[in-house]
Design goal:
This protein is α/β, with parallel strands linked by helices. The protein has helices at 17-25, 31-49, 57-72, 115-122, 165-172, 189-195, 229-240, 248-255, 290-300, 312-331, 333-338, 345-355, 359-377, 412-418, 421-425, 467-479; strands spanning 52-55, 84-88, 126-131, 151-152, 155-159, 178-183, 198-201, 221-226, 277-280, 304-306, 385-389, 402-405, 408-411, 430-438, 454-461. 37% of the residues lie in helices and 16% in strands. The strands form three sheets. It has an eleven-stranded mixed β-sheet, with helices on both faces. The chain has a two-stranded antiparallel ribbon with strand order 4-5. It starts with 16 loop residues before the first helix and ends with a helix.
Length: 480
Amino acid sequence: MPSPQSIKSGPFAGRTVAALGQDLREGRTTATELARLALDAVAGLDPALNAFVTVDAAGALEAARRADGELAGGTDRGPLHGIPVGVKDLIMVAGLTTTMGSRHFSGHVPDQDAACVTRLRQAGAVIVGMTTTHEFAYGPTGDRSATGPSRNPRDPARMSGGSSGGSAAAVAAGMVPLALGTDTGGSVRIPSALCGIAGFKPAYDAIPSDGVFPLSRTLDHVGVLAGDARDCLLAYRALTGQDAGPDMGQVAGQVAGQDAGLGSGQNVGLNAGRVRVAWLDPAGLFPGDPRVVRAARAASGAEEEVRLPAGAGGELRETYTTIQSCEAAAVHADRLADAPELFDAEVLDRLRAAEEVPGWRYVRAMAARERLARTVGELFGRHDVLALPAVPMTAPPIGQREAVLDGEKIAVRAALLAYTSPWNVLGLPALTVPAGLVDGPDSPNGPMDSPSGLPVGLQLVCRPGQERLLFEVAARLTHS
């Protein structure tokens, strides 16, 4: 395996969709050149990272040439026009092998695009290929797929996170500037945080899930992964046709005082501006690595702190697990009966356990969901945005299933889901942005740290319809 030092950044590392679009429109590059850069980067970097399952070189170049022709003829489809994009191997793309990360669907080629892919094409995006997913998206670790684990570009011996791990690795490594993922309990935000990029899970059903293979129908969300929050915003707008908020450049200018009548050396504090941000104490959800929690809190800029009511964290976790288990078992009932041997062993064990959850628990969980929505909703009475870590730990080594956090032995899967899954239960928009680097703990087999440290993610949560506030806060944090 290549050492961490040998994983080089691809051509899109540090380059935003907005800047690439400007280069396209001002003639400094073409969509065809961008597509070739992406394809060359995948060829060079993917053997070490396993971010892509299927690469569509011919289709990408054809779409890129079409995008160039349209721009030359005066047709501009918007900020994604001519931009290379990866699509999670769970989202149907007509004519491309889409396997759900499973031997059950080896060789499966859909004949129709998912609704979100149709919108990508309408926006002029260039689909490069399909990115690795944890089998059937049933796992936050990203290391159980028929084609092997996706790997973290910061250290390929560590997890990318999951289940949208290939999308996160592809963006973090600079193979593409943007990717689609799905998020049932954190599957966009977890790998984004572990790989050091931005990930956005909108409100429930904000981006249509038609044509996306389900895991848990009432928890599944389609989301976007990009190098920064601004690019997530551009993609969200393109995929929804909604105005998610002010342009990030405009917001950044306001924060720096350029539009607020402040001196150039002054910054607007988050709680002094229009957006009221509170730190949500993560201890009410799950233990956390103190270094990760400190880094995320420092990045948040929040001055006030709120806590979940006693017992709410545990109830949210139990509600999530029950709903997901019952719905996942229903999705896979026929495959479990007819060909269980085609599942990954760990995924099969989880589905067998899910089959044992009684129906009455599902009914109670759905009722608890409504009650918890009211309870947590009260936290937004005095605050617009809640801030907390995206995950309580740095990226674990691939295959690790137990760890120690703050002196307590924990299950890695439960830890990775702990800070993200509540917002799937409640259907709330949540954005993860990079919050710095910390040294990672040693693995049981010895030190495995990336020389530059491992990423920490900050998660921002709001009510549906208030998505613009998340991006406004992200812009302020970036330019503070």
